[in-house]
Design brief:
Number of strands: 0
Largest sheet: none
Structural class: mainly alpha
Low-confidence stretches: none
Helix content: over 70%
CATH class of the largest domain: Mainly Alpha
Number of domains: 2
Mean pLDDT: 89
Strand content: under 5%
Number of helices: 12
CATH architecture of the largest domain: Orthogonal Bundle
Distance between the termini: 51 Å
Order of helices and strands: HHHHHHHHHHHH
Shape: globular
């Protein structure tokens, strides 16, 4: 085997991984770098380093209002989708009822349908029903497509529960509600939290369905799309960078907490 071939075979995975990471991280690096740009009329060309954008995040007109709207929509849709999706997941796993298999199949449709089709269909329904577009229609639309992801996530957790644990609670004369609150719900909580985080991320990030059903209501992705025509303001880059840093901190803290818990359980065992 030629030396070049051996060298490439040894380092091919590293080269591929480096190229993939660079390709994925370039947009994030660009967003973070231009959050420090000394922009005046546009944020397209680099004009120098400044912290003014971070110290005056709400100076750009409408950016903080759009961000607040996205937070409100994301939290509302997450709560609704998580509650409804968890109840549907438990019903699908624990109970037998007519059209159960058809219900399971239909729940996958919002995940498999293109967003432009969902957005246009919902917009037509709201128009037919005479519902004025705004925050309410956006929350309802986001709740609709988030429910499917919640059901899929929580359903796997429900299916993996050991029925003997709930049976032990009933043997100790606990009522059905007490068994659910003290046994079933804590065991389901990791799946429910994962589903809620996924729902919030999907809702906060959505643009296509929101654009069809929001009317004059502006969310952060919609604000960024509109502003992109004349150069995204640096304050929007600041918010996007802050969200990225918060997500990184959340993941690191979660991983450290999980590692500490595993270590503590290993010492106890």
């Amino acid at each position: 085997m030629a030396p070049v071939t051996r060298w490439f075979g040894k380092y091919a995975l590293w080269i591929y991984s480096t190229i993939a990471f660079v390709f994925l991280l370039i947009p994030i690096a660009y967003t973070i770098a231009f959050s420090f740009n000394d922009s005046r009329r546009s944020n397209i060309a680099w004009r120098g380093f400044t912290l003014d954008n971070w110290l005056g995040i709400c100076d750009a007109q409408g950016v903080c209002e759009a961000f607040g709207n996205s937070i409100v929509v994301g939290l509302s849709a997450t709560v609704l989708a998580t509650v409804l999706g968890t109840m549907i997941a438990i019903a699908l796993v624990r109970f037998r009822f007519p059209f159960r298999n058809a219900t399971s199949l239909l729940l996958f449709l919002p995940m498999a349908t293109p967003e432009v089709v969902l957005g246009a269909g919902l917009a037509a329904e709201f128009l037919t029903a005479g519902v004025q577009k705004g925050a309410l229609t956006v929350i309802l639309a986001h709740t609709m497509f988030c429910i499917s992801f919640v059901v899929v996530t929580v359903r796997a957790r429900v299916a993996s529960l050991d029925p003997a644990l709930e049976e032990a609670g009933r043997d100790l004369y606990a009522s059905p509600s007490q068994v659910f609150v003290r046994v079933t719900l804590p065991l389901l909580m990791p799946g429910i939290i994962a589903a809620a985080l996924l729902s919030f991320a999907l809702s906060f990030d959505d643009f296509i369905i929101t654009n069809f059903n929001s009317g004059a209501y502006v969310t952060f992705p919609k604000f960024v799309y509109t502003a992109a025509a004349r150069g995204i303001p640096a304050e929007a880059n600041v918010i996007a960078s802050a969200v990225f840093f918060i997500a990184i901190i959340f993941v690191v803290v979660s991983q450290l907490s999980a590692a500490a818990r595993r270590k503590r359980l290993a010492l106890q065992g």
